[in-house]
Amino acid sequence: MDYFDILIDSFFDTLNLVPFLFIAYIVLEYIEHKSEEKMLGVIQKSKRFGPFIGGVLGLFPHCGFSAIASSFYSTRIITLGTLFAVFLSTSDEMLPIFLSEGVGAGVILKILFIKFLLAMVFGFLIDFIFKTSLHREIKIREFCTCSHCHCGEGVLYPALNHTVKISGWIFVFTFVLSCIMEFIGEEHIVSIFSNNVYLTNFLTAGIGLIPNCASSVILSKLYIGGVINFSSLVCGLLVGAGLGLIVLFKMNKSLRENIFILLGLYFIAVFSGIVLQFLGV
Predict the structure, then answer these.
(1) What's the pLDDT tens digit per position in 22-45?
(2) How far apart are CA 269 and CA 264, in angstroms?
(3) How many Cβ atoms sit within 10 Å of the Cβ of residue 118?
(4) Burial category of 279 from C-beta neighbours within 10 Å (exposed 0-12, middle 13-18, buried 19 and up)
(5) 180-220: per-residue pLDDT in tens?
(6) In the Cβ-directed half-sphere of 16, how many Cα atoms lie within 13 Å?
(7) Highest mean pLDDT among 111-120, 167-176, 186-195, 207-216
């Protein structure tokens, strides 16, 4: 195992996320410092359409949007349903891998449409069941306090401070996780799926829970190689929130709530995979 190569890859994976995090924290700081009624009105009015907007944003092939969604939910700028919508529609590296492997446009569009539809449906359903209180000012102050930043020093410096701290945490986690994945080996993972046909949906959802872009890479390769079917692929991609889960557990203070979100993603994905399998999709 070449730890140096893994270290370099982890560094650049984290570096690619930095601009998205920085933009997210600039927005948070701006909202805190510019407490205009018009800005508050836009946030409140967009609340009911959040799962739709979240489902659209999650379709972009980058795990940065899930990290932004986690930051926004931790400060209660978006609702729980919007967070689920972003997580469920996020696909990370699936699209570029499929394009490079020559997978048909019909298959790609079908995956994106199903993920968007399920993300929107479950997002609105969750918002209907769980009412999220968007207490912007209180939550952002708590966010700043727990991060030990200097929120009174303009916008750019606190945003940079948040970005550096979260990026460092993500880098360490990505490196450790990549070492574990390298140690297990992709061939061993393929054998696990081949020997447990009826548990594939549960297994792919488990792979999808890995808070790293590597999960979508593994799932995409397993599908291309014929190891898993379409419904199992969608099942794993639904729960693949990328680095969003890392940011959520770091930024959101309620561990119980974070575990609920993680388990909710898993069971929604497994249920959806079973339904797709039953419908013959």
Answers:
(1) 887 777 667 656 554 454 444 445
(2) 8
(3) 22
(4) exposed
(5) 777 776 667 667 666 666 688 898 898 888 776 667 777 88
(6) 15
(7) 111-120
Q: What is the CA radius of gyration of the chain?
A: 19
Three-state SS string over the chain comes to CCHHHHHHHHHHHHHHHHHHHHHHHHHHHHHHHCCCHHHHHHHHHHHHHHHHHHHHHHCCCCCHHHHHHHHHHHCCCCCHHHHHHHHHHCCCCHHHHHHHCCCCHHHHHHHHHHHHHHHHHHHHHHHHHCCCCCCHHHHHHHHHHHHCCCCCCCCHHHHHHHHHHHHHHHHHHHHHHHHHHHHHCHHHHHHHHHCCHHHHHHHHHHHHCCCCCHHHHHHHHHHHCCCCCHHHHHHHHHHCCCCHHHHHHHHCCCHHHHHHHHHHHHHHHHHHHHHHHHHCC
pTM of the model as a whole: 0.71
Q: Would you state the torsion angle of the CA atoms of residues 91, 92, 96, 101, taken in this order, to the nearest 10 degrees? A: -70
CA atoms of 26 and 139, how far apart (whole Å): 16
Burial group, residue 94, by CB count within 10 angstroms (0-12, 13-18, 19+)? buried
User: At residue 136, does pLDDT exceed 80?
Assistant: no
Question: Could you tell me the CA-to-CA distances from 129 to 43, 78, 197, 263 in Å, in that order?
Answer: 20, 15, 34, 17
Q: Which of 70, 10, 29, 12 is nearest to 160 (CA)?
A: 29
Residue holding tokens 């948070």?
28
Q: Which amino acid is at 106?
A: G
What residues contact residue 44 under an 8 Å CB cut-off, 6+ apart?
A: 134
